[in-house]
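cache lookup: miss for this entity combination. No prior model stored, computing from scratch. Input as submitted by user K.M.:
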Amino acid sequence: MAHWDVFHADRLEVERNLDTAALRRAFESGALGDDDLVRPAGAKAPWSRLSAFPELTRAESNSPEPAFHQPIAAGPEARNPVVSSSEPSDFEVQSGDFGAEIFDSPPTLRDPDWVQLRNDSDVAFPVINDQPPAPAAGARAPQDYEPVPPGGWLWAEEVEDDDEDFDEPYAEPDPAEADGLEILDDESAVALPVNPSRRDRNTAASSQSSRIALPVAASPAWDDVPGEMEIEDEADLSLSRGGPETVEELDLAPMVDVAFQLVLFFMVTATTVLYKTLEIPKPSAEQAPATVAQGRSLADLQDDNVLVEIDAAGAMKIDREPVPANMDSLVERLRSTREKTNRKSMVLSADYATKHKDTVIVIDAAHEIGMNIVIARPAGPQGPAPSLLAQPPAAAVAPTAPP
Amino acid sequence: MLLRRDAKQERDEHIDMTPMVDVVFQLMTFMLFSVQMTGGEKVDVPPARHGIGVEETDATFLTMTKPVPPNNESKLLLGIGEGPTVNLEQARLAVAEGAKAGRRKVIIQADGDVPHGEIVKVVGSVGQVEGVTVHLGVQEPRGH
């Protein structure tokens, strides 16, 4: 009884070495369908649809074994396909094994006459040939492919996940070398068109000219490390970035740092606040009338001191001579008077109602040229005549010395 | 679309308070620095080119406010720009207490329009305290 290899189109699995009876039972039970593919067990013949073999799909009877026809216009190697004696384990696209032994075995079945398949490769997946039919038999151009009857399948070459393959142009098979088609063993599932320069198995270019009916499992790249690049769960793979982490707590570290900065600032600046002041002479403990009783009037003091007078309106006089009430004029006049008269101190006699800012100008001018200041105590609105703020004795507080 | 946000993730509605706190501290720091830089005298003391700096902790401050109508009298306050109104005797006692505490300087922050005679009376009163020096509060001339 013949044995068959069956390719389940629904789950993309190969079931090998089924006898005809089992195949029929599977078809009757619904495990196999018309779209499933079948070929002789261990044969290198192209796959064919199960519906092309009505003998296999009929109920078990004494019908003869269906004949499996070879593909039309196949080369010598295709008529005598090389069948590997070793049975592959499961369906998968494997890389070519050039060292595999190839055992010759005569074909047991023929393809149907109407089946026209590509004989230039042998892969696990059947490929639909959607290329236009050749213009004439025998006059085959390098770019033309074998005509395929409706519903037929074409061989496709293995598609490798190799970027380098896409850079190389597809080399059309040389019709003169069609007889040199090399069919590898069944494990490799790759049959390259003859071109000694293309024995490096660059099949991507040739695969571009055919359309694969079923997804092709890409062979692992040469640089893939088993188990390293695997994605455990492809369903979770996503390029979407996770959302921002929710802020559950307030980070207090920056606030503490700023607080310490403020503390340091106050520690440094708290003791450096200065107030600008003009030191003035302090009056003595003696009463003003007593001072006046000493007999020193302003006129007498004018011999030793420069007399500066300011009235209630702010008009200034130096030694009874008017002077502009501004800083520069006062400084210039006082300096010249000191140089001329060699008097190094000044008596400030201002009215009770004189504004404070006018007296500050005179005191500031005295400080600028380094003159001692004596402030005369003004008389009250209705009080006695102005008298000096008594200069303290030499043993006590001295008159204000310029800084 | 792989780049679409996962619809299962809940949107985070919480507001991060840390930047707001930082900004608040920055504003506080700016206000503190700006207030210190402008001086902020409570009274308009007369300007003067010369003068000496006296620390606040080394002096007793007396403030004489600008005379206000109807009687054009100025107030004597114990403090810098503000404080309780005192008379000459109370000011003298305060200066004496300050001298005992180590504050041997007396700064009279008087407005520029205060009569000279009033200032002389205050100076004469606080000058009776031994060991103290009297200073008139001034400020930098405008434009410098």
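stored under new cache key. The helical segments of chain B are 18-38, 88-100, 116-126.
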